[in-house]
Design brief:
It is built from nine helices and nine strands. By secondary structure, the protein is α/β, with parallel strands linked by helices. It has one domain (about 5-245): 3-Layer(aba) Sandwich (Rossmann fold). The strands form two sheets. Strands 5-4-1-6-7-9-8 form a seven-stranded mixed beta sheet, sandwiched between helices. Strands 2-3 form a two-stranded antiparallel ribbon. The chain is globular, with a radius of gyration of 17 Å.
Length: about 240
C-alpha cells in the first residue's frame, strides 16, 4: 500500500527478528563461492534514522535494537557497516543488511513502489551495485524470475495493511517458487489478534516451509497491536533451523 512508511517501526522487535534471520540465512547462502541473486518485494528506504522524527514518534526501536545484546552474529556486521557509513543513529533496513553481507559476485534486485521510499532507497544505495525498480513487488519479482544467477534468496515483506494481502502473498509465493525453484523464499508476517497469518500459513503448507515465530508485548500496550513476528521460509537452505534457533 502506498500509505505505509516503515520509519515509524524501524528497529523494533519485529525488525530484529526479521533481520537476524535474514542475516543468518544469507550467511548460509554465501558460504560457498558460487554467486547468488538476492531480491526483495517491498524494500522500503534501505536505511533508517533512529534519531529522526518518525522513529522518535513511536519509540518502537527501544524495545528492539535498543535491547538487543551484541554477540557473534552477521547481523552486527550489517549494523557496524551501516553506522560507519550513515552515522551512529542509523539502522539498516533489509536492503542494507543484505548489502553488507553480499559479495561482489552476487546480484541484488529491489522493488519499492512508494515514491518517497523509492527515492530514499536510491539515495541510500547510491554508489552500490544494485538494481532498484519502482514497480509492484509481486509483479516485478515474477517478471524477473528466474534471474541469473539462479541460486538465491527472496524476502517478501509487505505491510499487510489490507486483509487480502495474506491470501495474495500466499498465492504469489506459490507462483514464485514454481517459476524460480532454486530460490529460498522468506516471507515475513505480523502476528495480530485476528490471526490472519494462519491463512497465509495454510496456503503454503503443502510446500512444508520452515516456520519461526517470536512473541512480544504490543508497543505501548495498544489493543489490537502486533504481538509477535513470524517467518515462513520455502526451500530453506541447509542449516536454517539452527540459524533460526
Amino acid at each position: 500500500m502506498l500509505s505505509y512508511q516503515h520509519g515509524y517501526h524501524a528497529g523494533g522487535p519485529a525488525d530484529i527478528h526479521k533481520h537476524f534471520a535474514l542475516a543468518g540465512v544469507l550467511s548460509l547462502l554465501t558460504r560457498k563461492p558460487r554467486p547468488i541473486t538476492y531480491m526483495e518485494s517491498h524494500a522500503g528506504r534501505g536505511v533508517y534514522n533512529l534519531g529522526g522524527e518518525q522513529a522518535r514518534k513511536t519509540g518502537e526501536w527501544k524495545a528492539g535494537i535498543g535491547k538487543a545484546e551484541r554477540r557473534d552474529h552477521p547481523f552486527w556486521t550489517a549494523i557496524d557497516a551501516t553506522r560507519a557509513r550513515y552515522g551512529a543513529t542509523a539502522y539498516p533496513g533489509s536492503p542494507a543488511v543484505a548489502r553488507a553481507l553480499l559479495r561482489p559476485q552476487d546480484r541484488m534486485v529491489l522493488m519499492e513502489l512508494h515514491p518517497t521510499e523509492n527515492a530514499e532507497l536510491r539515495e541510500a544505495m547510491a554508489g552500490e551495485v544494485v538494481e532498484i525498480h519502482k514497480r509492484d513487488g509481486c509483479e516485478g519479482l515474477l517478471a524477473l524470475s528466474p534471474p541469473d544467477p539462479r541460486r538465491g534468496l527472496v524476502l517478501i515483506d509487505p505491510s499487510y495493511e489490507r486483509k487480502d494481502d495474506y491470501d495474495e502473498i500466499g498465492d504469489f509465493a506459490v507462483k514464485l517458487a514454481q517459476k524460480w525453484p532454486q530460490a529460498a523464499i522468506m516471507i515475513w508476517y505480523p502476528i495480530l489478534k485476528a490471526a490472519r497469518h494462519e491463512r497465509l500459513a495454510r496456503a503454503l503448507s503443502s510446500a512444508s516451509p520452515l516456520r519461526h515465530e517470536v512473541r512480544f508485548p504490543p508497543h505501548g500496550g495498544r489493543e489490537g497491536g502486533m504481538t509477535g513476528s513470524g517467518l515462513l521460509i520455502l526451500n530453506a537452505p541447509f542449516g536454517s533451523e539452527k540459524v533460526m534457533a
